[in-house]
Amino acid sequence: MNTTAQIPQWTGVAASLLLVVLAAALVVYQRLGVARDLLWAAARAFVQLLAVGALLTILFAHAGLWGSALWVIGMVVLSGFVAAGRAKGLPRARVAAWIAVGLGTAATLGLLLLLRVIKAEPIVVVPVGGMVVSAAMSATALTMRAIARTATEQRAAIEARLSLGMSGVDAFSPYLREGVRTALIPAIDTTKVVGLIALPGAMTGLILAGVSPFDAIRYQIVVMYMLLAAAALSSVVVARLTTSALFDSADRLVRFTHQS
Which of 147, 148, 138, 144 lies closest to 230 in space, CA to CA? Predict the structure, then answer.
């Protein structure tokens, strides 16, 4: 199947800029005050994607599997900054985010590579690893944000439970479970409706590349299960790490200022 016509030329990319202009015009018309942010985001995405495309071209041609592993590690490091930024003020947030995203990514991606479900090639490891890191980062950020907000808003209730002789972990456990459940709702809902509301990215890309829909579906099922596992594992890990950081050695709830 010839897929050349399915890939936009640079003239098509330029034409798609009209969509950004339309969005900016609507924002200005409604006086939403984010027109500058919208245009900056579009320009930044263009430059970033050009840079990433150039780097990936070099990576796929010369760096090999170890270069791909370093690329995925770099994504994990960056995701830790992003996830921790959603729960500013939370003790040791960045370290907890790095550990959670790293474990979620390593466990899921590593298992599929070990079982040879996906190929250990740069052209596979980098894009699939990016999807896994993104899912783990989102779940981590949502979990940390929920825990930070709860620890701030429910401080009196938590300290009352501590005064009854509970340990810090026990006093916070009901809120911890709720935080993890809240963080996993997007991943669970996305898995429930996959293919019904929208065709997911991996499947769409394979179909556009000329792969049979049934072959694309098999790959997408693997990806969706992998993303769900990464989100669940990262959320549980960061919840435990963050909860431990909320209490000192005497099981007192530490004071911090949460900035969402």
Answer: 138
Q: Which of 118, 132, 116 is nearest to 206 (CA)?
A: 118
Tens of pLDDT along 3-53?
444 677 888 888 999 999 999 999 999 888 889 999 999 999 999 999 999
Q: Supply the pTM of this predicted model.
A: 0.82
Give the CA radius of gyration of the chain. 22
